[in-house]
Amino acid sequence: MVSIEDVALKAGVSIATVSRVLNGTGYVSEETELKVLKAIKELGYRPHFSAQALARRKNFEVGIVVSRRIQEILSTEIGVFYKIILEAIESASAMYKISTETICLDDWDFKTNHDGYILVGSDATEEQILKLSSKAKVVLVDHYIDGLRVNSIVSDGYDGVFFVTKEIISKGLNRIVHLHGPLKYYGFRDRYNGYVSAMTRYGKLPITYEYDDLHEDVDNVLKKMLRDWVPEAIICSNDVIALRTLSKLRELGYKIPEDISVIGFDDIPAAEREGLSTLRVQKSELGLNAVKRIYELLTGQSLHPYKQCLYTLFVKRNSSKY
């Protein structure tokens, strides 16, 4: 039987680090998490409690549904967020004796030949989710639709951005801008609402700019932002937007963080390398909890649907004063 020591040896980390990844406790870098999850998957490791609890269970088959948009960006810096979630889902599925098949949302005719489905990302429409959930057990990851009441595992972007905006305001700053992605996506919308709520609560004027990091160059939006006055802090709705903003501001001659503080969201590996202050999403936990939830549904445990929000963690680095 594969042990936790075997996983640690293969991943080149300590047993304590493997334990932190499995239990979601303590800080582990994204790159280390990926090493541990890969080792778990390759070795077929199952914690002892899972081996005992699952010994008498059937092997379930679960479809992992992602859009073509996400599939196309998995190998890029933008797609690291989803890559880590999917790695965690695959590793956790092995622990729960669940067989998985990746399905492209755009090419799928919704024939339900699996026991359940995990939908990753916010591309699935309300109509698609309702159609699928009427036939099979469904868990959404990084997606939520108001009033739908389908099981959802999300990061608390609202609280994270509210928290960091509040902290910046408490330091006496007033010119705080939010640079966000397209609001049709749940995650960006949730973070946007946290910023607006914090600014409004503390009597500040919310100033927002939309930027599509997949299809636009950041130059134009920054020119608009800097045309009339220079912000003291820019809170971005993901790290990719923040890193591009950092690069362009430095190119324009601004000192970071002396002139402008820049804060991202997600904490992808590049954020740590570039010294970007950011809000860390517990991406592995999103994947692990999604598998745990689909397993509960498939085995008739805790059937009432819920939305689970995982708090983010602010990680201060060199791009912000506070």
Automatic annotation (TrEMBL):
Domain HTH lacI-type: 2-56
Transcription is among the record's keywords: yes
One matching Pfam family: LacI
An example molecular function term from Gene Ontology annotations: transcription cis-regulatory region binding
SUPFAM superfamilies xrefs: lambda repressor-like DNA-binding domains (SSF47413), Periplasmic binding protein-like I (SSF53822)
InterPro entries for this protein: HTH_LacI, LacI/GalR-like_sensor, Lambda_DNA-bd_dom_sf, Peripla_BP_I
Keyword set, alphabetical order: DNA-binding, Transcription, Transcription regulation
Protein name per the record: Transcriptional regulator
Natural source organism: Fervidobacterium pennivorans (strain DSM 9078 / Ven5)
